[in-house]
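Weekly puzzle thread! Below is a chain. First person to post its structure in token form gets bragging rights.
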Amino acid sequence: MRSVRLLLLSHSRLVPQLVAAWILFLLTAGATYSVPPVMLKPIMDELGASQAQVSLFPAVFLLSKGVFALPAGEVLHRCGPHRCLVWGTAALAVATAAYTQAYAYWHFLALHVAFGICYSFGGLAANLCLCNVICPEAGKATAIGLLVTAFSMAGVAWPPLCAALEQPPVARAGLAEWVAAP
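Winning reply:
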């Protein structure tokens, strides 16, 4: 705990950047890892799809994330972590908004591919690079540890929120209202 306090106090310019990165990672991890599993059952019911069919959603997410990891790394190297985090998270917000409007099986497959691509650009790798760029040598591990807690918090916060929204009439309609709220 002392190292966290020293990192934040000695480098006050880091605080806003780390807070923003933490929030973006919370949103990114929530939208890509935590929300989709909660939504699978309502989507199965809505589309009349089988469990085998909707189990492809996480598979295409992970496949696209893996396929785009190297190109995203090159973009991260050329453009920097700040831009990749902002643009990756913005694209993810668009894909998440589109998720509420999807009505066909292939729409969901395509959106999970988009989630994987967005996560490649605005997820963990970009956050790790950000810490390496902005943090002093002695504080890098602490900053990375702090940012990784956003992934855990996404797993704690998002599923109950989405489960509450999943109540009738339609889960994605509730998500659409929440996404559209100012």
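Puzzle host: Confirmed. Bonus trivia for everyone else. Residues 23 and 94 are 17 Å apart (CA to CA).
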